[in-house]
Amino acid sequence: MKIRSDFVTNSSSSSFIIARKEEMSEHLKEIIVKFVQEEMLGEKLLSPDSKEEEILKVFDENYIGDERQQKEIRKALKEGKVVYSDSIMFECCEYDYASLYERLWKRLSDADEKDFEIIDGDLSY
Fold it and tell me: Is pLDDT of 81 > 50?
């Protein structure tokens, strides 16, 4: 556990120390891209092959009543895009951000390579 011995403000920040090769391997880059896709770009709502009933159900269940948004979603689907959605809770962001970092570092550390190391990754204070 870390104990702050210096001046403490209302700032909710935490420091960390990691070590990595300056040039990241393709494997570590793939892990980061996959992490961002899975953890930061929302959950899949609809795909281009979604049926009309499914689209209407998603609109209803996700409170997408705005006609402009519905039109843009339908346009994206026609263009072959997959639609994702999620939310961010700003009241508790410091915990969410710390959790994102910690989960990413775990994936990078679990890689078979020795290019990434957590020296001090405790973001819990």
Answer: yes
